[in-house]
Amino acid sequence: MNTTLFTGFNFEGIGAGKPQLRVLGAYNITHEYSKAPPRKFSHPFWVLSCRFTNHEYIRLHTVRNPWQQVMAGRIMLTPPGSLYWQDFSRVPAPTRGAFIAFTGGETLGLQEFTGNKKTLAVFLDPENRVSRAISDVARYAASLKAKAFCKVQSTLYGLMDQLLSAQPVDKKNHVWTLEGGGHPDRAERSFRLQVNEYLLARLAEKTVNRDIARRFSLSVPGLFKKLAAETDESPMKMLARLRIDRAKALLMQGEPLKVIAGRTGFWDAYHLSKVFKHYAGLSPRKYLKALVNAG
To answer: Per the database record, which ranges form the HTH araC/xylS-type domain (predicted)?
Structure first.
């Protein structure tokens, strides 16, 4: 029998219209031994989670990949759309952990920690600072419910600041450490961030490759070459992703599709829905419904 116990509070619906980086919920988890078969998960929001004991086994992306145990002292960042399986049957002792669910990680460039892929990133947390912060706000949420929103939201900003100071350990496998300071490869990433900021300011405008190249005094081939040194995204793929990220935030604020299309550079609601489904895997309405149901 599966006896997972969640103690926390769901913040969905509270603080609508706040900044795009927004907490959805904070929970502590206690999981007893279970013989239940592995379960498959995928969610439309970001999750930052920690483990205080060696925890479940996970499998990423496909059933052909090997199982890996989630170890204590590690923080996991799971982006929207990740596909993974959890298996608690191999861990007989009760396990403990905590997590925060949130939206808006894309605006901070968190996807770069996962290699711009729908896979999780691991952060080594040798002093358990981030782990304790996640657990503390989950306890705070459980006791104060809706009144805890501002506290948890402010803690989320602090946690993001710590993640952005992580140092690379194994980039290929998306492993970072929270020990030490300085943003990983800040100089190396600066051009991508400049392009990102340029596009964010022009999401509603018609923008093509030569506009971006002209802004940075480059030829179009030079733009592609310089960007390819930092990311596998082309300028137009980056623009499309940023537009969809903004559309997701506007959906959560209750804006109609016609308005969202106009503010994110799409021709109309139909064009928005078509591109949205390509990137998110769901139509805008089904995405919003899934987000609400997940809460």
So the answer is: 193-290
Q: In the chain, what is the straight-line distance between the N-terminal and C-terminal CA atoms, in Å?
A: 23
Rounded-to-integer distance, Cα 199 and Cα 238, Å? 8
C-beta atoms surrounding 158 within 10 Å:
12
User: Closest Cα partner for 89 from 30, 49, 53, 38?
Assistant: 38
pLDDT at 4: 64
**Whole-model pTM over 0.70:** no
* Euclidean distance between CA atoms 91 and 57, whole angstroms: 8
Tokens standing for residue 186: 């800040």
SS3 content of the chain, % helix, strand, coil (to 5): 40, 20, 40
- The CATH architecture annotation of domain 5-177 reads Sandwich (2.60)
Distance, in Å, from the CA atom of 248 to the CA atom of 232, rounded to the nearest integer, reads: 23
**Residue 99 and residue 291: Cα distance in Å, rounded?**
17
Residue 281 CB partners (closer than 8 Å, separation 6+): 81
- Secondary structure of residue 175 in the 3-state scheme: strand
CATH of domain 186-294: 1.10.10.60
State the pLDDT at residue 265.
Answer: 93
CB 72 within 8 A of CB 125: no
3-state class of 54 per DSSP?
coil
Instruction: Copy the structure tokens of residue 182.
Output: 């300085």
What whole-number distance in Å separates Cα of residue 97 and Cα of residue 53? 7
**Residue 112 corresponds to which amino acid?**
E
